[in-house]
Amino acid sequence: MFGVKKSILARLALLLATLIWGSSFVMMKTAVTDIPPNLLLATRFTGACLILAAVFSRKLKKALSEEPKKYLIAGALAGAALFAAYCTQTYGLMRTSPGKNAFLTAVYVVIVPFLFWPVDRKRPTVDNITAAVLCVAGIGLVSLSGASSAAASSLTGDILTLIGGFFYACHIIVLARTASGCDPVVISILQFGSAAVLAWITTFTFEGVPDYAKLPWTGGLAFSVCYLVFACTAVALMLQTVGQKYTSPSSAALILSLESVFGVLFSIMFGDEALSLQIIVGFVLIFVAILCSELSPIDKIKRRSKSVSTVDPDIGSY
Q: b/e for 82-114, b at 16 or more Cβ within 10 A?
Protein backbone atom coordinates (compact mmCIF):
# COMPACT_ATOMS: atom_id res chain seq x y z
CA MET A 1 0.00 0.00 0.00
CA PHE A 2 2.77 2.43 0.94
CA GLY A 3 4.62 1.51 -2.23
CA VAL A 4 1.56 2.33 -4.34
CA LYS A 5 1.09 5.72 -2.64
CA LYS A 6 4.73 6.66 -3.15
CA SER A 7 4.53 5.58 -6.78
CA ILE A 8 1.46 7.76 -7.40
CA LEU A 9 2.93 10.76 -5.54
CA ALA A 10 6.17 10.37 -7.49
CA ARG A 11 4.28 10.50 -10.78
CA LEU A 12 2.35 13.57 -9.62
CA ALA A 13 5.65 15.26 -8.72
CA LEU A 14 6.99 14.54 -12.21
CA LEU A 15 3.77 15.80 -13.78
CA LEU A 16 3.94 19.05 -11.79
CA ALA A 17 7.55 19.51 -12.90
CA THR A 18 6.54 19.20 -16.56
CA LEU A 19 3.71 21.68 -16.02
CA ILE A 20 6.15 24.24 -14.63
CA TRP A 21 8.57 23.65 -17.49
CA GLY A 22 5.76 24.03 -19.98
CA SER A 23 5.04 27.47 -18.58
CA SER A 24 8.73 28.40 -18.84
CA PHE A 25 8.64 28.77 -22.64
CA VAL A 26 6.99 32.17 -22.30
CA MET A 27 9.63 33.26 -19.76
CA MET A 28 12.52 31.87 -21.81
CA LYS A 29 11.33 33.77 -24.86
CA THR A 30 11.61 36.99 -22.86
CA ALA A 31 14.91 36.24 -21.13
CA VAL A 32 17.00 34.66 -23.89
CA THR A 33 16.39 37.69 -26.11
CA ASP A 34 18.32 39.93 -23.70
CA ILE A 35 20.68 37.50 -21.93
CA PRO A 36 23.29 35.22 -23.60
CA PRO A 37 22.20 31.56 -23.33
CA ASN A 38 25.09 30.24 -21.24
CA LEU A 39 24.92 33.20 -18.87
CA LEU A 40 21.21 32.53 -18.43
CA LEU A 41 21.90 28.85 -17.66
CA ALA A 42 24.70 29.79 -15.25
CA THR A 43 22.37 32.21 -13.46
CA ARG A 44 19.57 29.63 -13.26
CA PHE A 45 21.72 26.83 -11.88
CA THR A 46 23.67 29.05 -9.47
CA GLY A 47 20.53 30.65 -8.06
CA ALA A 48 18.76 27.29 -7.67
CA CYS A 49 21.80 25.76 -5.96
CA LEU A 50 22.15 28.63 -3.48
CA ILE A 51 18.42 28.70 -2.67
CA LEU A 52 18.17 24.96 -1.97
CA ALA A 53 21.52 24.87 -0.14
CA ALA A 54 20.29 27.60 2.21
CA VAL A 55 16.91 25.95 2.83
CA PHE A 56 18.27 22.42 3.25
CA SER A 57 21.69 23.20 4.76
CA ARG A 58 21.34 20.55 7.48
CA LYS A 59 20.53 17.81 4.97
CA LEU A 60 23.48 18.87 2.83
CA LYS A 61 25.97 18.93 5.71
CA LYS A 62 24.77 15.58 7.05
CA ALA A 63 24.99 13.83 3.68
CA LEU A 64 28.43 15.23 2.87
CA SER A 65 29.77 14.31 6.31
CA GLU A 66 28.48 10.73 6.12
CA GLU A 67 29.00 9.77 2.45
CA PRO A 68 30.88 12.62 0.73
CA LYS A 69 32.37 10.57 -2.12
CA LYS A 70 29.06 8.95 -3.08
CA TYR A 71 27.13 12.21 -3.13
CA LEU A 72 29.81 14.28 -4.86
CA ILE A 73 30.26 11.74 -7.66
CA ALA A 74 26.50 11.38 -8.17
CA GLY A 75 26.00 15.15 -8.15
CA ALA A 76 28.86 15.74 -10.56
CA LEU A 77 27.65 13.13 -13.07
CA ALA A 78 24.00 14.28 -12.89
CA GLY A 79 25.03 17.92 -13.20
CA ALA A 80 27.25 17.25 -16.20
CA ALA A 81 24.44 15.43 -18.02
CA LEU A 82 21.95 18.14 -17.05
CA PHE A 83 24.13 20.99 -18.33
CA ALA A 84 24.95 19.14 -21.55
CA ALA A 85 21.24 18.60 -22.20
CA TYR A 86 20.22 22.20 -21.49
CA CYS A 87 23.15 23.71 -23.40
CA THR A 88 22.79 21.66 -26.60
CA GLN A 89 19.00 22.04 -26.58
CA THR A 90 19.31 25.82 -26.23
CA TYR A 91 21.83 26.13 -29.05
CA GLY A 92 19.68 23.82 -31.15
CA LEU A 93 16.70 26.07 -30.49
CA MET A 94 18.68 29.06 -31.77
CA ARG A 95 19.11 27.29 -35.12
CA THR A 96 15.77 25.55 -35.58
CA SER A 97 12.07 26.17 -35.02
CA PRO A 98 10.66 25.82 -31.45
CA GLY A 99 8.21 23.11 -32.52
CA LYS A 100 10.88 21.01 -34.16
CA ASN A 101 13.19 21.58 -31.21
CA ALA A 102 10.54 20.27 -28.79
CA PHE A 103 9.79 17.27 -31.00
CA LEU A 104 13.40 16.24 -31.57
CA THR A 105 14.27 16.67 -27.88
CA ALA A 106 11.44 14.26 -27.05
CA VAL A 107 13.39 11.39 -28.62
CA TYR A 108 14.71 10.73 -25.10
CA VAL A 109 11.38 8.99 -24.44
CA VAL A 110 12.39 6.39 -26.99
CA ILE A 111 16.08 6.36 -26.00
CA VAL A 112 15.69 5.77 -22.23
CA PRO A 113 14.44 2.13 -22.23
CA PHE A 114 17.14 1.13 -24.71
CA LEU A 115 19.87 3.12 -22.93
CA PHE A 116 18.81 1.57 -19.63
CA TRP A 117 19.02 -1.93 -21.15
CA PRO A 118 22.84 -2.34 -21.09
CA VAL A 119 23.10 -0.43 -17.79
CA ASP A 120 20.63 -2.53 -15.79
CA ARG A 121 20.28 -5.53 -18.16
CA LYS A 122 16.54 -4.91 -18.30
CA ARG A 123 15.04 -5.38 -21.74
CA PRO A 124 12.48 -2.82 -22.97
CA THR A 125 8.98 -4.30 -22.77
CA VAL A 126 6.35 -4.25 -25.48
CA ASP A 127 4.50 -1.64 -23.38
CA ASN A 128 7.65 0.53 -23.30
CA ILE A 129 8.05 0.41 -27.05
CA THR A 130 4.36 0.89 -27.85
CA ALA A 131 3.97 3.77 -25.36
CA ALA A 132 7.12 5.49 -26.59
CA VAL A 133 6.06 5.32 -30.24
CA LEU A 134 2.55 6.62 -29.46
CA CYS A 135 3.90 9.37 -27.22
CA VAL A 136 6.46 10.63 -29.73
CA ALA A 137 3.82 10.55 -32.48
CA GLY A 138 1.48 12.59 -30.28
CA ILE A 139 4.18 15.07 -29.33
CA GLY A 140 5.05 15.43 -32.99
CA LEU A 141 1.46 16.36 -33.88
CA VAL A 142 1.24 18.82 -30.98
CA SER A 143 4.67 20.44 -31.25
CA LEU A 144 4.81 20.68 -35.03
CA SER A 145 1.30 22.03 -35.41
CA GLY A 146 2.57 25.57 -35.86
CA ALA A 147 5.57 24.75 -38.00
CA SER A 148 5.69 26.05 -41.54
CA SER A 149 8.01 25.82 -44.50
CA ALA A 150 9.16 29.36 -43.72
CA ALA A 151 10.41 28.17 -40.31
CA ALA A 152 12.40 25.23 -41.67
CA SER A 153 15.38 24.41 -39.48
CA SER A 154 19.00 23.92 -40.39
CA LEU A 155 20.69 20.55 -40.19
CA THR A 156 23.02 21.84 -37.48
CA GLY A 157 20.11 22.83 -35.25
CA ASP A 158 18.43 19.46 -35.71
CA ILE A 159 21.62 17.58 -34.85
CA LEU A 160 22.26 19.70 -31.74
CA THR A 161 18.67 19.16 -30.59
CA LEU A 162 18.95 15.39 -31.07
CA ILE A 163 22.17 15.42 -29.05
CA GLY A 164 20.30 17.35 -26.36
CA GLY A 165 17.63 14.65 -26.31
CA PHE A 166 20.33 12.03 -25.87
CA PHE A 167 21.80 13.91 -22.89
CA TYR A 168 18.33 14.21 -21.31
CA ALA A 169 18.09 10.43 -21.54
CA CYS A 170 21.55 10.15 -19.97
CA HIS A 171 20.43 12.44 -17.13
CA ILE A 172 17.45 10.22 -16.39
CA ILE A 173 19.65 7.11 -16.39
CA VAL A 174 22.26 8.75 -14.14
CA LEU A 175 19.60 9.72 -11.61
CA ALA A 176 18.14 6.23 -11.72
CA ARG A 177 21.54 4.72 -10.95
CA THR A 178 22.76 7.25 -8.37
CA ALA A 179 19.61 8.40 -6.51
CA SER A 180 19.02 4.99 -4.95
CA GLY A 181 19.85 5.23 -1.26
CA CYS A 182 20.64 8.96 -1.56
CA ASP A 183 18.70 11.97 -0.35
CA PRO A 184 17.14 13.38 -3.56
CA VAL A 185 17.21 16.94 -2.19
CA VAL A 186 20.96 16.76 -1.66
CA ILE A 187 21.46 15.25 -5.12
CA SER A 188 19.44 18.16 -6.55
CA ILE A 189 21.65 20.73 -4.82
CA LEU A 190 24.88 19.07 -5.92
CA GLN A 191 23.78 18.58 -9.52
CA PHE A 192 22.80 22.27 -9.74
CA GLY A 193 26.22 23.21 -8.38
CA SER A 194 27.98 20.98 -10.88
CA ALA A 195 25.88 22.29 -13.78
CA ALA A 196 26.49 25.89 -12.62
CA VAL A 197 30.28 25.41 -12.66
CA LEU A 198 30.15 24.03 -16.20
CA ALA A 199 27.81 26.84 -17.30
CA TRP A 200 30.13 29.52 -15.88
CA ILE A 201 33.16 27.94 -17.58
CA THR A 202 31.25 27.92 -20.88
CA THR A 203 30.12 31.51 -20.33
CA PHE A 204 33.63 32.86 -19.73
CA THR A 205 35.01 30.80 -22.64
CA PHE A 206 32.46 31.65 -25.32
CA GLU A 207 30.56 34.73 -24.11
CA GLY A 208 33.22 36.66 -22.20
CA VAL A 209 33.09 38.19 -18.73
CA PRO A 210 29.42 38.92 -17.94
CA ASP A 211 28.26 42.35 -16.86
CA TYR A 212 24.78 42.20 -15.36
CA ALA A 213 24.65 45.99 -15.09
CA LYS A 214 24.72 46.35 -18.88
CA LEU A 215 21.79 44.02 -19.45
CA PRO A 216 18.53 45.73 -20.47
CA TRP A 217 16.74 45.10 -17.19
CA THR A 218 12.99 45.63 -17.10
CA GLY A 219 10.27 44.39 -14.75
CA GLY A 220 9.37 41.65 -17.22
CA LEU A 221 12.98 40.47 -17.65
CA ALA A 222 13.61 40.45 -13.88
CA PHE A 223 10.44 38.43 -13.28
CA SER A 224 11.35 35.98 -16.04
CA VAL A 225 14.82 35.37 -14.59
CA CYS A 226 13.45 34.93 -11.04
CA TYR A 227 10.78 32.52 -12.28
CA LEU A 228 13.33 30.51 -14.26
CA VAL A 229 15.69 30.30 -11.27
CA PHE A 230 13.16 29.48 -8.56
CA ALA A 231 10.22 27.69 -10.17
CA CYS A 232 11.68 26.18 -13.34
CA THR A 233 15.04 25.15 -11.89
CA ALA A 234 15.03 24.88 -8.09
CA VAL A 235 11.47 23.60 -7.66
CA ALA A 236 10.85 21.69 -10.92
CA LEU A 237 14.18 19.87 -11.08
CA MET A 238 13.96 18.92 -7.42
CA LEU A 239 10.47 17.54 -8.09
CA GLN A 240 11.98 15.53 -10.93
CA THR A 241 14.79 14.16 -8.75
CA VAL A 242 12.44 13.25 -5.89
CA GLY A 243 9.74 11.85 -8.17
CA GLN A 244 12.12 9.83 -10.29
CA LYS A 245 13.50 8.05 -7.23
CA TYR A 246 10.21 6.12 -6.99
CA THR A 247 9.44 5.88 -10.72
CA SER A 248 10.99 3.64 -13.36
CA PRO A 249 13.20 5.44 -15.91
CA SER A 250 10.88 4.54 -18.80
CA SER A 251 7.78 5.90 -17.02
CA ALA A 252 9.67 8.99 -15.86
CA ALA A 253 10.79 9.75 -19.43
CA LEU A 254 7.23 9.40 -20.71
CA ILE A 255 5.78 11.75 -18.09
CA LEU A 256 8.58 14.31 -18.48
CA SER A 257 7.98 14.38 -22.23
CA LEU A 258 4.68 16.16 -21.54
CA GLU A 259 6.69 19.36 -21.15
CA SER A 260 6.20 20.19 -24.82
CA VAL A 261 2.46 19.53 -24.55
CA PHE A 262 2.08 21.94 -21.63
CA GLY A 263 4.19 24.41 -23.57
CA VAL A 264 1.66 24.35 -26.40
CA LEU A 265 -1.23 24.65 -23.94
CA PHE A 266 0.29 27.79 -22.38
CA SER A 267 0.91 29.11 -25.88
CA ILE A 268 -2.79 28.62 -26.65
CA MET A 269 -3.78 30.29 -23.36
CA PHE A 270 -1.70 33.36 -24.21
CA GLY A 271 -3.14 33.49 -27.72
CA ASP A 272 0.06 32.53 -29.54
CA GLU A 273 -1.41 29.35 -31.02
CA ALA A 274 -4.90 28.17 -31.97
CA LEU A 275 -6.34 24.80 -30.95
CA SER A 276 -6.64 22.57 -34.01
CA LEU A 277 -7.70 19.03 -34.89
CA GLN A 278 -4.04 18.07 -35.22
CA ILE A 279 -3.34 19.17 -31.62
CA ILE A 280 -6.41 17.33 -30.33
CA VAL A 281 -5.33 14.10 -32.06
CA GLY A 282 -1.86 14.55 -30.57
CA PHE A 283 -3.31 14.88 -27.05
CA VAL A 284 -5.35 11.71 -27.56
CA LEU A 285 -2.27 9.74 -28.66
CA ILE A 286 -0.27 10.96 -25.66
CA PHE A 287 -3.12 10.11 -23.28
CA VAL A 288 -3.30 6.57 -24.70
CA ALA A 289 0.48 6.25 -24.36
CA ILE A 290 0.32 7.21 -20.68
CA LEU A 291 -2.47 4.71 -20.04
CA CYS A 292 -0.48 2.01 -21.83
CA SER A 293 2.65 2.70 -19.79
CA GLU A 294 1.26 3.66 -16.40
CA LEU A 295 -1.79 1.54 -15.57
CA SER A 296 -0.10 -1.84 -15.92
CA PRO A 297 2.79 -1.15 -13.49
CA ILE A 298 0.46 0.29 -10.83
CA ASP A 299 -1.83 -2.72 -11.08
CA LYS A 300 1.18 -5.00 -10.62
CA ILE A 301 2.29 -3.07 -7.54
CA LYS A 302 -1.21 -3.32 -6.08
CA ARG A 303 -1.25 -7.08 -6.61
CA ARG A 304 2.15 -7.45 -4.99
CA SER A 305 1.15 -5.28 -2.03
CA LYS A 306 -1.73 -7.62 -1.23
CA SER A 307 0.57 -10.61 -1.01
CA VAL A 308 3.61 -8.99 0.64
CA SER A 309 3.32 -7.43 4.10
CA THR A 310 6.89 -6.18 4.52
CA VAL A 311 7.57 -2.46 4.91
CA ASP A 312 9.22 -0.67 1.99
CA PRO A 313 12.83 0.09 3.05
CA ASP A 314 12.80 3.43 1.21
CA ILE A 315 10.00 4.91 3.35
CA GLY A 316 11.19 8.01 5.15
CA SER A 317 14.58 7.99 3.40
CA TYR A 318 14.21 11.67 2.67
A: bbbbbbbbbbbbebbbbbbbbbbbbbbbbbbbe
